[in-house]
Specification:
It contains 13 helices and 20 strands. By secondary structure, it is an alpha/beta fold. Bound molecules: nicotinamide-adenine-dinucleotide.
């Protein structure tokens, strides 16, 4: 099978060479087609860090093993990782975090957690706007297809890997619409997998529990931003971020990598630990069905670590027997292909179960009704009552100002004088009865222009099958 590889920057070429040598020695059925990504491409004037022809190769081969790259400092360079994930629809980021006690020092000797992170949406849509002198916003987009795909992936992964529990982390006590949707979809899909335990934690206490008692968790699924942060925490508390790999999985393509960066200061010295990229490669072998080779490599890797053959980053007087460089570490693994660890548990990836990941089917549309509109106003004053008077001047017959909030908290009617207000105000208009029309919104906006009220954006307030699709003001 032909796969695309990119050797990347810094320590990238060394750890890629080590990884490919191990895969080849283990008998992996792989052919490598190399592309150039990263620093050189960026500095040649291509702000995406990858040439158009390279996309063709990645899309043709479908499986991509990528070493870390250096994103040059300074503006204008786009993250190749984020672009790749979104262009190729790699919606699922899977990161196993398992401690290697007593061979790698950790406070959590029995940790074995897999973080499944949504990879395409949430605050990473990158849709940001400055709206007033004082306020910028970043849109957090959570979609039903996004939630269904990632949650189903987590349960299917658990089933395939013979894992017992899937936990969901969200902050839906605050973000009732966006995180609320993620949690709701989790509950819906969990019900389809009665053989797998499921639970939901509010992210703050869940994160604290994960850092303190990781053995309480098995597979954890979460939206993009939380997953970004907590997958690094989880990898770090196993003992080292240098030992973890990750998979980015889509319906068509997949990308595999180490979780660490290009460590430029260690480059070219035969020092770097190739384990992170090797772990990415093992996820890849499992993904493409070469599970016997994946097992063989992983068991040889565990045996090597167990014998105390360690690169500088995990070398420790007490547990290490030999400090080796990148090449020698790879040689040691190759020598141990076919052997199993004695103290650490040997892995067995064989599974009769093929993951069932159907394409998303769009649901029948719900009955949608327009119930009101929020006009966001840039106003540099301080007194909400004063603004209310100005805003009431644009009211229509039967469409009245019902509330003003500032950063979400209600400041009119009956606000608190203690509430700090910025220059960014949300003014909610509701019809006295029935629904609102788009013409009435245009009318409100045109009144705002004639009254010199600076409306910076509007949000329509809809119900879907009678259920409100918007939040109330805090304190309302
Ligand atoms: P880094 O992960 O490269 O390095 C952090 C620390 O870990 C350093 O002390 C480094 O020496 C050490 N380290 C990392 N990998 C190691 C390994 N395999 N063996 C031994 N030690 C290792 O993070 P950074 O210094 O913040 O970033 C360096 C560059 O990498 C930046 O340009 C950044 O943009 C890039 N980066 C790329 C990716 C990627 O391509 N996926 C991810 C993160 C950072």
């Amino acid at each position: 099978m032909k796969i695309t590889i990119a050797k990347g920057d810094g320590i990238g070429p060394e750890i890629m060479d080590a990884t490919l040598r191990i895969l080849t020695a283990a008998g992996a059925n792989l052919e490598f087609e190399e592309i150039e990504v990263g620093e050189k491409v960026y500095l040649s004037g291509n702000t995406s860090g990858i040439a158009a022809e390279s996309w063709d190769i990645i899309r043709r081969n479908k499986v991509f093993l990528k070493a870390p790259i250096t994103t040059p400092q300074g503006g204008g360079y786009k993250s190749l990782n984020v672009t790749t994930r979104k262009f190729l629809g790699l919606y699922s980021n899977v990161r196993p975090c398992k401690s290697l006690h007593p061979f790698v020092q950790t406070k959590h000797p029995i940790m074995d957690v897999v973080i499944v992170r949504e990879n395409e949406e949430d605050l990473y849509a990158g849709i940001e706007h400055q709206q007033t002198d004082e306020v910028v916003q970043c849109l957090k987009l959570i979609s039903r297809p996004g939630c269904e795909k990632i949650v189903r992936y987590a349960f299917e992964y658990a089933k395939q890997q013979n894992r017992k529990k899937v936990t969901c982390f969200t902050k839906d006590n605050i973000m009732k619409q966006s995180d609320g949707l993620f949690h709701k979809v989790f509950d819906e899909i969990a019900a389809e997998y009665p053989e797998i335990e499921n639970e939901h934690w509010i992210i703050d206490i869940g994160a604290a529990k994960l850092a303190d008692t990781p053995e309480a968790f098995d597979v954890i699924v979460m939206p993009n931003l939380y997953g970004d942060v907590l997958s690094d925490v989880a990898a770090q508390i196993t003992g080292s971020v240098g030992l973890a790999g990750s998979a980015n999985i889509g319906e068509e393509c997949a990308m595999f990598e180490a979780i660490h960066g290009s460590a430029p200061r260690r480059a070219g010295q035969n020092l770097a630990n190739p384990s992170g990229l090797l772990q990415g490669a093992i996820l890849m072998l499992n993904h493409i069905g070469q599970t016997a080779i994946a097992e063989k490599v992983q068991n040889a890797w565990l045996k090597t670590l167990e014998e105390g053959i360690h690169t500088y980053d995990i070398y420790n007087e007490g547990t290490s027997s030999q400090k080796v460089g990148t090449r020698e570490f790879a040689d040691a693994i190759i020598e141990r292909l076919g052997q199993k660890p004695q103290t650490l548990s040997a892995v067995s990836y064989a599974s009769d179960y093929t993951m069932n990941l159907p394409k998303y089917q769009r649901k029948a549309p719900k009955q949608k009704a327009l119930e009101g509109v929020d006009l966001f106003v840039h106003w540099p004053g301080l007194e909400a009552n004063e603004l209310a008077e100005k805003v009431q001047a644009i009211e229509l017959d039967g469409v009245k100002l019902s509330m003003i909030t500032n950063r979400g908290i209600k400041v009119w009617p009956e606000g608190f004088k203690e509430t700090f207000c910025t220059d960014h105000w949300r003014c909610r208009f509701k019809p006295a009865s029935g629904s609102l029309s788009k013409e009435e919104i245009i009318h409100l906006l045109s009144n705002a222009v004639s009254k010199e009220l600076d409306v910076v954006k509007t949000e329509n307030l809809y119900t879907f099958d009678g259920v409100a699709g918007y939040s109330l003001g805090q304190g309302q």
